[in-house]
């Protein structure tokens, strides 16, 4: 028996005063669908979701829901006007017997239903909107970036809830691990067209690359055919004018076909310049603590950050990750202990609150008004890593078009705001990069490029993120803050941290000691190494991951330098890649020597 669709879009066209966002779009959402909605920032993902939710009226076409079907939409910026508390908003439309759903969602998503709307942060408002959607249990859930402003524990709760749900849902998210775990089909918006594949997000990139390869092949064949026909037209048309006018018209049609093809958007031309080298020791913190009133954020904590380290900070929202980060870079004093910053530091900061962006400013003014980017006497230029550039040209490198240059920042999508902030950050040389939730709202291609840039960046990176996949790709060391005031250092990224930490199962300390003793009996090689200090033991544990990272970076640089045209096409990139390769080879040799010394010392 055929299933009745939950929602059907028929021949949808939509234009916002320019090129069409969609033209002739049709798609169907079936019961039980688990769909990833993907596409570049600004491609129309959120707009399509609003059309599906009935919040945006198309210029042409119809949106039809099945009989009795309820559709729920969680938007990025929910309107809570008219509600006194977050709980009032989340419970709107529910029967008294259904109120427990809000409480359950509030516990899982970590928001306080009693919080007044007037004092709630943007993240708390979004969590209330998500709780409202989950509690309402619509037949089709439309989730626009649901993991933004959720910590990893809340993401895990949401992932588990959705995996067990019988409802259909469509998800927009930058979190690859989340999409891979939940989706069974993929909708891909690309240049106004929407394609569907009956595979989850795990198969998206291979599918995308195959389609792009096929497009390139077809475009190449078309260009060759046009070239051949044009040559014929020049050489033979005069002798056979009447007989071959049909062939001339066919050539015109071929040229029209090529002109109608929409060139796909390339990746942002982002670049990082590490500038002058910092000292070998970047940050040294000894015994630092922090409390707010009776609440202890950080117990005595010590850390040494070396040049080139990639350190991630993880833990629940509100646990103190950003506070610790600000203490380490000297933006906030510790209650006790000391923090010493190394020499020759050039800091660049990516702020999770986007506080560096003025919503009322245009993109143009946002760049030219930055004192560190302003070019004296040139109102239309910005200083980019020591070189003046026209402001529109620089915006185009980050995939903004000329029409957006004079538009206000508030008109941008979340991903576009993140790209604008990256444009400001990457304009200046730095050797200490501090990224507080940089991955929110970024599309897959921009995330890939950001990860690649961080991999070849010559400076030091301190990173706060809830994106598990990104943490695994970037971090060589993870500092976990789990809410008890302790910050614990682990080697590797998120997956390494999870595999190393003790399970928080509520058992007594004695039980944990017994378990640890049992492990030590079974694996004597992992027993305490008496010849090493605490710092040396940590360093010995961290070195294998560091060596693996350096080997991977050397391999990537080797592949880049293997391009025979690189030197002639981009001599600056060739020089930087060569210098980076030499430096990483030196770091690898030093790390291997250090590991041998510490291992011998540990062995007695």
The first-to-last residue Cα distance is 73 Å
Structural class: alpha/beta
At the first level of CATH, the class of the domain at 7-206 is Alpha Beta
- From the alpha carbons, calculate the radius of gyration and give it in angstroms: 28 Å
Number of strands: 21
Strand order of the largest sheet: 5-6-7-3-8-9
Shape descriptor reads: globular
Low-confidence stretches: 505-530
CATH architectural group of the domain at 7-206: 3-Layer(aba) Sandwich
CATH fold type of the domain at 7-206: Rossmann fold
Strand content: 15-25%
In DSSP terms (H or I, runs of 4 or more residues), the helix count works out at: 19
Helix amount, in percent? 40-55%
Question: What does this molecule look like?
Answer:
With 604 residues, the protein is of the alpha/beta class. Among the domains are: 7-206, P-loop containing nucleotide triphosphate hydrolases (Rossmann fold), CATH 3.40.50; 510-604, Helix Hairpins. It is built from 19 helices and 21 strands. The chain has helices at 45-53, 86-90, 100-109, 122-136, 152-164, 176-182, 204-236, 245-260, 321-328, 363-368, 391-397, 414-426, 444-456, 468-474, 494-500, 509-522, 534-561, 566-569, 571-602, and strands at 7-15, 20-29, 34-39, 60-65, 71-74, 140-144, 168-172, 185-190, 193-197, 281-292, 295-306, 310-314, 336-341, 347-350, 374-375, 378-384, 387-390, 432-436, 460-464, 477-481, 487-491. The chain has a six-stranded mixed sheet, sandwiched between helices. A six-stranded mixed sheet has the order 14-18-19-12-20-21, sandwiched between helices. Helix 13 links the parallel strand 18 and strand 19. The longest helix is centred in the middle third of the chain and has 33 residues, at 204-236. Residues 505-530 have low confidence and may be disordered.
